[in-house]
């Protein structure tokens, strides 16, 4: 159904377009487990992933770190016992770019691969 996770991030600078409200609604259908949140006026995508212990949470954190380095697009990762909170946004535009939705879909795929 989703092809977002097959897509590559585009290089992005301060002039890159933020997603519109319409695009946001459309893209959210492909990543239904994520929540759009606004922090200090900056829209972000967030999801909590649950694990059985710290070791599994840390392993997932590292896998997400690898896909981030592959695309040179980086999340905030908070690793706790049994839980990893992943937050994506595009610092360069202080908001959401399509890249963030691609990376959210790819983060879901990391979970599916484990
Ligand atoms: C210079 C380099 O392209 C930038 O610093 C990249 C690195 N990773 C990034 N990650 C995210 N999430 N947003 C960015 O704007 C961003 N910019």
Automatic annotation (TrEMBL):
Keywords: Lyase. InterPro entries: PCD_sf, Pterin-4-alpha-carb_dehyd, Pterin_deHydtase. It catalyses: (4aS,6R)-4a-hydroxy-L-erythro-5,6,7,8-tetrahydrobiopterin = (6R)-L-erythro-6,7-dihydrobiopterin + H2O. GO terms for molecular function: 4-alpha-hydroxytetrahydrobiopterin dehydratase activity. One of its GO terms (biological process) is tetrahydrobiopterin biosynthetic process. NCBIfam families: PRK00823.1-1 (NF002016). Belongs to the pterin-4-alpha-carbinolamine dehydratase family. This is Putative pterin-4-alpha-carbinolamine dehydratase. The lineage of its organism: Bacteria, Pseudomonadati, Pseudomonadota, Gammaproteobacteria, Alteromonadales.
